[in-house]
Design goal:
Layout: H1 3-12, H2 16-30, H3 37-44, H4 48-51, H5 58-71, H6 83-100, H7 105-109, H8 116-132, H9 136-158, E1 163-164, E2 167-168, H10 171-182, H11 189-193, H12 195-199, H13 203-226
Antiparallel strand pairs: 1-2
């Protein structure tokens, strides 16, 4: 098969899924700003115009990326007999997906047209919360709270990901280093007392603390409504 025939084969195998997967791969490696129709076309051995037969524009591409991210959430291990465990597992899986694709977090923070793939995990979460006894309005607000915590926590974890001795230094650790140079125990005694915790910060433990606190609050709210 000559080069022209190979190129024709690649073009004929183009699909929306392949284009979105290529965009995710590029963004993971080089950042979201590196994603363009021209770059994707080059990686897929196609022309930029050929991509528009499958993806109408950049906005539709971003919508596809958002759907791809949410489709990666593994919901197979949810214990549906315990709503709190199911919610914790589901949103922890969401966090894991974002940590695998931190460069794509801004895609979920933009206004986007939600695809069916993007809506399914949201539908399941709200269904679980309503099944636990929350009203539709409360279930939606709980989902917003949990999703906001996931994205905020990942953003916080990935802020200033400097490397030191081949190991990633977390944002809280960087803050602790800066605080040691800037603050005194006389002026900020409580903040100084937290510096050892900042320097040894385990972000997984911090995540567990936060998600457990939110779920505990939801349980308390649910119990109070039943009194």
């Amino acid at each position: 098969m000559n080069e022209a025939e190979v190129s024709d084969t690649r073009r004929s195998s183009l699909s929306r899924d392949r284009i979105v997967e290529s965009a995710v791969t590029i963004a993971d490696a080089e950042g979201l700003e590196a994603v363009s129709m021209r770059r994707i076309a080059s990686d897929l051995g196609a022309t930029p115009m050929a991509l528009y037969n499958h993806v109408a524009n950049k906005d539709e591409l971003m919508n596809g990326i958002a759907g791809q991210l949410l489709k990666e959430i593994d919901l197979s291990a949810l214990d549906m007999s315990d709503w709190a465990k199911a919610i914790k597992t589901g949103y922890t899986q969401f966090r894991s997906v974002l940590l695998r694709h931190p460069n794509l977090l801004p895609v979920l923070q933009r206004k986007t047209e939600m695809s069916a793939d993007a809506l399914r995990p949201i539908e399941l979460a709200i269904s679980i919360l309503q099944g636990a006894g929350f009203s539709p309005d409360e279930a939606l607000k709980a989902h917003w709270t949990l999703s906001g915590f996931v994205m905020g926590h990942v953003l916080w974890q990935m802020t200033n990901p400097f490397l030191e001795d081949q190991e990633q230094v977390t944002a809280p650790q960087i803050m602790a280093m800066n605080h040691r140079r800037m603050i005194t125990s006389d002026e900020f005694p409580c903040l100084c007392a937290t510096l050892p915790a900042m320097e040894s910060c385990d972000m997984d433990e911090a995540w567990e603390f936060g998600i457990d606190a939110i779920i505990h609050g939801l349980k308390v709210k649910l119990a109070a409504a039943k009194v």
